[in-house]
Design goal:
Length: 445
Amino acid sequence: MKKLVALLMTMTMAVSLAACGSDTQGDTGSAAGTSQAAETTAAGESTATAPTEKQDVSLTMWGAEEDQALLQSMIDSFTQHYADYANFNIQLGVESESTAKDTILTDIESAADVYAFASDQLIDLVNAGALLSIDTMDEALQAYAGKSVADIESANASGSVEAATYNDTLYAFPMSADNGYFLYYDSTVLTEEDVASWDSLLAAADAAGKKVGMTLASGWYNASFFYGAGFTTGLNEDGSTAMDWNGTADASGVEVVQAMLDIAGHNAFLAVADGDISNQIASGALCAAVSGTWDATAAQNAFGEGYAATKLPTFTVGDQQIQQGSVAGFKLVGVNAYSQNAGWAALLAEWITNEENQALRFEQREIGPSNSNVAASEAVLSNVAIAALSEQSAYGVVQVVGGNYWDPTETFGEMIAQGSLNRDDTAAIQEALDTLVEGVSAPTQ
């Protein structure tokens, strides 16, 4: 992995920001102006002096297709805010947070200066040398945004900061804290007591002639049962996933699978393909579904006056009720380590993730904020989906896994969904768990 050291100098006439690499990576910085360090006031305001001759700054930024109009408005406000310092040419491109890593790692040097990505991609991006650590930008952030790295960390939820950190180094700006899931339900069909456990939820749905939908053929969703029962996943030094699901935590792995088979085999349960929950909600067949904020509109339209949401139910293991866990996912914004204008890229990344723009993102797109002040606002707290996500977050886990985690867990989840395992054949269940752990533990090639 290339080691990157950012050399930052703040100047009265322009921002001098250089990102210098190892002997395998040349100078990727830019510099202009006369050297005289800017300072920040005690209130955290910028004291950088506008230059007499502005520099030309070109940047590219990638974001989700559905966020293009919103991001463009943020770019416009950014260029207006810093208009005294530079002439900007910022090009906005489309790249989903979910696919960002794959696109970026194809050609890091040609990737955008600033890009958004899902938090589970952070480690791979860092190891590939695709992210510039934020602490190398601290001087520029303080001088021109009036914020230190410590300020950014303290302004956001601890989980989002943890997700943006690797080896005690902050590598990205937290942008949102809503990349998780919970339970939507129709309160005209189901009561709060009904949705408290999978047993009562499925019984009430069956009585109403409705279904409860959830994706099982995904390691992002099916891990929720194991996390709830105290099992873990982690990352080994060789890039493989450490997994203990074939052992014993608060219950045995076999018992957790038996509970999942009981749920999946119920007449009122509908195993939904990954990405198809919104269509199933819209069909009118469901009275409840496990999903996230991205399906809020679909649920609201389908359930109407009965639109409601809450944490995930408990599930029965032996004679105990175990709270179903979840994956606590976050969306982050990073700076490309090969950016020719790394300092300005950092300032742009900070801008689109600051408190004001997180509030704007929630206002226009109902995206859950990672910023603590925005999250505590009346508007956010009164939002049905965000409130449910917040309730479930107490049981959420920041999922850290290797590349070989996904295919085996998808196959395993499909076995549960299709009822390929007999709940009474504990030897076969244990064998399936052992095979799962062996598959995810294989080193990444």
